């Protein structure tokens, strides 16, 4: 009856929230000219009926589909445009298997429900790779959601580091809380209405102070039940500099004095920078999965293995016990073992594959996971020179993309690689790698490692041996830069999404998301956002330089900006063009390309806010007002013959003032410029 009990808890929680927010709800109904008594009675009757049905269902020990409707009146409070990390939330497929991890889950739930005002607000769950930290995090997040609690789940991922999720962590959490609690939403809307820049600021300190602490202070006592924020895999945010500010906030005095019903569950490996900061903090409760009783972990792994391998008559209780013992407490090892044993390739029996796991051929030392990875790869990748070379080529591509891609998109990119040797279907290598990578069995999902430790293994030659890949290879970035630029030159076109009017801003185009999905292919979307990331990491190549010159020297440059606006990614443009300038600097016959790239940066700086608001104004407003003496205007204006022209008073050159830097609150007394012209430092009485 667990699901029924969860629905009862949710119905009670939702009812309490409705009562708590009744005064705001009542005034909202009044403003919309609705009958307050009638509307209130409808809501009360709805909750009462649902609760009666669920209680009877529980008494009868019967399972019926009773819908709990949530009546939350969200007034017209505009939070559109707030930075949000898509895909960083709860994933129920990663939950613990029912019946496993009971003790640690109960410990965490007891901590969440502890009414003591002095209870630590943050619990740091840490352990080595493969211990099951993420499964526990997603189980807790799922539990909170199922019982109608208020919360947010934010996950870092190694293959999403290019998205700079660390800059969106608290805007995402604030938005999640606002979507679930009307009181918090009103308080948050009030804050951002006074300063719209807070919606997109990458400054996590401002996010913390104004999007989390300030709204919480205004709704103190109004939120029903506990607020639980789950932050998973902080160690995968990137280099230690990517999380230093987050760690600083978590150890601050403000974090120690969060409301007594507020909890943050944080998971990570115990990396030195994380351990050094979190361990001394009194308001952070540290729990190590490495220290959990070996008996209970082995019992849980035994249950997991017996569930995964049920239906295989060869695998009995003794084999399950042997696998559980061999796992040494690593759930990831157990998962890989089960995938390896299942009969998914011809040539060997289940017991032969079982024996390979229990008595591996691989010699030498290495961790248990390393031995498992080598065993699986030896089984899937024949050691001949051609196959190994293709394996390295494919895995370099998968590991070097700045956002994970589906198999069909990876193949499309590969078809544009400069070397004919690379023009093969990646499925010939990836077909049997489903135990290690997602997106192989299910072609609708992106190809990415099922566990981050697999990338670590492939990147370390002392661990992976002949399977060493080295994702940072300059050659693969050169190939991906080629593929991206060829995609841009081939696929970009004018008004790619068929927008009919410049009278509407992007937000007012009702089916814009659908148009983008239909007209901007995944490989074009990726190429628009990341071509310069690959270019920056590639050695200079005259053929690649020719592609760069073709791209920046024609109208495709403008079409690229159009796509970035539609993808809400115009922020990529200036850094991409700056990288292009750095890459071309000092080379022969690139003067025109350099001037066009510099003009492109100034074009975005001057017109970026206009064109990101309404994409058609890229052509209708921005282009005609581009200074007439610039290389960019001379190249583009003849290609667009039906534009308005500025007859009198138009700019001939870019204005000297390129950008206004804002931040000081009092007068600025000193300014210093770095000798390379890249940085400015200022001093003020503030």
General description of the model:
Residues 121-270 form the NACHT domain. This is NACHT domain-containing protein. With 686 residues, this protein is an alpha/beta fold. The protein folds into 5 domains: 1-79; 92-291, Rossmann fold, CATH 3.40.50.300; 295-359; 385-398 and 406-471; 484-639, no CATH class. It has helices spanning 2-20, 22-31, 36-60, 102-113, 133-146, 169-180, 182-194, 204-218, 244-250, 253-256, 272-278, 294-308, 317-326, 331-341, 350-358, 368-380, 385-400, 407-414, 427-430, 453-459, 461-464, 474-491, 512-519, 522-537, 542-552, 556-566, 571-584, 591-613, 617-622, 631-636, and strands at 122-126, 150-155, 227-232, 262-268, 284-288, 437-438, 448-449, 668-673, 680-684. A hairpin with a 6-residue loop joins strand 8 and strand 9 (680-684). Helix 7 (182-194) packs across helix 8 (204-218) and helix 12 (294-308) packs parallel to helix 14.
Task: List its traits.
single chain; 686 residues; alpha/beta; Rossmann fold; 5 domains; five-stranded parallel beta sheet; repeat; WD40/YVTN_repeat-like_dom_sf
In short:
This protein is of the alpha/beta class and 686 residues long.
Q: Topology of this protein?
A:
Blueprint lengths: L1 H19 L1 H10 L4 H25 L41 H12 L8 E5 L6 H14 L3 E6 L13 H12 L1 H13 L9 H15 L8 E6 L11 H7 L2 H4 L5 E7 L3 H7 L5 E5 L5 H15 L8 H10 L4 H11 L8 H9 L9 H13 L4 H16 L6 H8 L12 H4 L6 E2 L9 E2 L3 H7 L1 H4 L9 H18 L20 H8 L2 H16 L4 H11 L3 H11 L4 H14 L6 H23 L3 H6 L8 H6 L31 E6 L6 E5 L2
Parallel strand pairs: 1-4, 1-5, 2-3, 3-4
Antiparallel strand pairs: 6-7, 8-9
């Amino acid at each position: 009856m667990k699901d029924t009990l969860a629905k009862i808890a949710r119905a009670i929680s939702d009812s309490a929230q409705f009562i708590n927010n009744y005064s705001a709800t009542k005034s909202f109904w009044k403003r919309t000219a609705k009958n307050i008594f009638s509307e209130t009675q409808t809501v009360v009757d709805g909750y009462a009926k649902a609760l009666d049905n669920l209680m009877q269902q529980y008494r009868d020990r019967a399972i019926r589909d009773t819908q709990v409707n949530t009546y939350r009146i969200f007034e017209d409070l505009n939070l559109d445009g707030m930075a949000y990390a898509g895909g960083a939330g709860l994933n129920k497929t990663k939950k613990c298997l029912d019946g496993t991890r009971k003790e640690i889950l109960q410990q965490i739930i007891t901590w969440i429900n502890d009414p003591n005002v002095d209870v630590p607000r943050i619990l740091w769950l840490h352990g080595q790779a493969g211990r099951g930290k993420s499964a526990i995090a997603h189980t807790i997040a799922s539990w909170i959601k199922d019982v109608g609690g208020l919360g947010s789940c934010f996950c870092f991922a190694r293959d999403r580091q290019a998205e700079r999720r660390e800059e969106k962590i608290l805007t995402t959490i604030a938005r999640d809380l606002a979507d679930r609690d009307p009181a918090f939403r009103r308080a948050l809307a009030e804050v951002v209405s006074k300063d719209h820049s807070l919606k997109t600021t990458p400054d996590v300190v401002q996010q913390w102070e104004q999007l989390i602490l300030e709204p919480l202070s205004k709704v103190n006592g109004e939120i029903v039940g506990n607020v639980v924020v789950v932050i998973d895999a902080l160690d995968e945010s990137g280099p230690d500099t990517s999380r230093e500010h987050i760690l600083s906030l978590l150890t601050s005095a403000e974090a120690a004095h969060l409301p007594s019903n507020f909890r943050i569950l944080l998971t990570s490996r115990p990396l030195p920078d994380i351990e050094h900061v979190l361990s001394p903090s009194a308001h952070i409760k540290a729990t190590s999965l490495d220290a959990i009783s070996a008996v209970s972990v082995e019992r849980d792994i035994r249950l997991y293995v017996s569930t995964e391998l049920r239906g295989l008559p060869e695998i009995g209780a003794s084999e399950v016990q042997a696998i559980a013992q061999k796992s040494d407490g690593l759930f990831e090892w157990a998962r890989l073992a089960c995938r390896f044993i299942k009969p998914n390739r011809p040539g060997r029996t289940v017991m032969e594959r079982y024996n390979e796991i229990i008595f591996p051929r691989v010699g030498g030392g290495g961790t248990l996971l390393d031995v498992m990875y080598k065993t699986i790869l030896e089984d899937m990748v024949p050691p001949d020179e051609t196959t190994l070379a293709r394996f390295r080529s494919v895995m370099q591509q998968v590991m070097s993309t700045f956002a994970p891609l589906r198999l069909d998109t990876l193949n499309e990119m590969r078809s544009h690689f400069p070397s004919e040797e690379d023009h093969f279907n990646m499925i010939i290598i990836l077909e049997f790698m489903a135990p290690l990578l997602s997106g192989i069995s299910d072609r609708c999902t992106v190809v990415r490692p099922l566990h981050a430790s697999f990338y670590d293994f492939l990147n370390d030659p002392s661990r992976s041996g002949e399977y060493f890949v080295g994702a940072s290879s300059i050659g693969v970035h050169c190939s991906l830069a080629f593929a991206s630029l060829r995609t841009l030159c081939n696929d970009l076109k004018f008004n790619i999404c068929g927008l009919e009017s410049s009278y509407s801003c992007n937000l007012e185009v009702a089916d814009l998301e659908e148009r983008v999905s239909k007209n901007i292919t995944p490989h074009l979307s990726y190429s628009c956002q990341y071509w310069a990331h690959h270019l920056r990491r590639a050695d200079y190549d005259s053929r690649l330089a020719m592609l760069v010159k073709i791209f920046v020297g024609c109208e495709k440059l403008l079409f690229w900006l159009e796509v970035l606006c539609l993808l809400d990614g115009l922020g990529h443009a200036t850094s991409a063009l700056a990288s292009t300038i750095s890459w071309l600097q000092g080379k022969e016959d690139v003067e025109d390309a350099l001037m066009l790239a510099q003009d492109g940066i100034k074009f975005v700086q001057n017109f970026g806010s206009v064109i990101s608001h309404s994409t058609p104004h890229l052509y209708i407003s921005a282009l005609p007002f581009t200074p007439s003496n610039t290389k960019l205007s001379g190249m583009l204006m003849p290609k667009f013959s039906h534009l308005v022209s500025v007859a009198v008073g138009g700019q001939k050159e870019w204005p000297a003032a390129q950008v206004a830097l804002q931040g000081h609150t009092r007068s600025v007394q000193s300014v210093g410029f770095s000798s390379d012209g890249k940085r400015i430092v200022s001093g003020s009485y503030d």
